[in-house]
């Protein structure tokens, strides 16, 4: 779907997958006005297909657009575009279970020009790809690198938007994590370098027995849809749930005195993944016994069961596509 200043959204098209042809002076290539979303369509037990909370992705996409000085795509157009693609690609939605069809809606500036200003033309596109189960051989914990040198997002920055530049700025820390033998980066706040924000592409949860805490929306972390869904599910399951501030010291000390029983990360791609070990320039420790914990396992199953239709959907989160 195209957007032009003065004309708005127009020319919705469903076309076979093919390269986009861009002018070398396309503004996106230079000034990075790009935003995206990620959501999944799951096969339901009756053979129909449903996406999980796509309205939430549509709303976050609008928030990202506002932050990046891009036009907002109406929620119904976002949903119609995703539905049209899923319907077209129905045969690519895996037959059942955790495997899914992953949807990647995105928007780029499509105007040609070298001046630094919001563009007057944009292109909204959705592509899809089948995604297998994230842990085909069983859930295994990830190791994380606490990034103290680099920050992902600062107050007033673009951290709450799903903007391409956030990910570009993260790559160097991801490479550092890999050099340190870790799977993922954990980001800290930009000011004190003390408060836990989030993981590379996931939000974090800290489990203290029956009490579950996730870092509050600080203004520089991405408000994950999985994170929001788990706040509800954990409450439904009888846990005491809170959003709060957790420091690196809280993490280490809670681990030492045994009050912190599990840590997990959550996001559309992996749903939930346990965090098994932590490393920073100054310290390293194993999270509890380093194995997937009981609460992590229970929440993962509860959420996946709703997504795949294996359990009732009490909050009306599934969007039937047909
Ligand atoms: N944080 C970041 C930086 C992410 O890229 C993602 C993935 N969209 C998340 C958190 C998790 O968000 P969601 O649960 O909506 O996938």
Automatic annotation (TrEMBL):
It catalyses: L-isoleucine + 2-oxoglutarate = (S)-3-methyl-2-oxopentanoate + L-glutamate; L-leucine + 2-oxoglutarate = 4-methyl-2-oxopentanoate + L-glutamate; L-valine + 2-oxoglutarate = 3-methyl-2-oxobutanoate + L-glutamate. Its cofactor is pyridoxal 5'-phosphate. One of its GO terms (biological process) is L-valine biosynthetic process. Keywords: Amino-acid biosynthesis, Aminotransferase, Branched-chain amino acid biosynthesis, Pyridoxal phosphate, Transferase. Pathway: Amino-acid biosynthesis; L-leucine biosynthesis; L-leucine from 3-methyl-2-oxobutanoate: step 4/4; Amino-acid biosynthesis; L-isoleucine biosynthesis; L-isoleucine from 2-oxobutanoate: step 4/4; Amino-acid biosynthesis; L-valine biosynthesis; L-valine from pyruvate: step 4/4. Belongs to the class-IV pyridoxal-phosphate-dependent aminotransferase family. PANTHER family: BRANCHED-CHAIN-AMINO-ACID AMINOTRANSFERASE, SUBGROUP IIII AMINOTRANSFERASE. This is Branched-chain-amino-acid aminotransferase. It comes from Streptomyces botrytidirepellens.
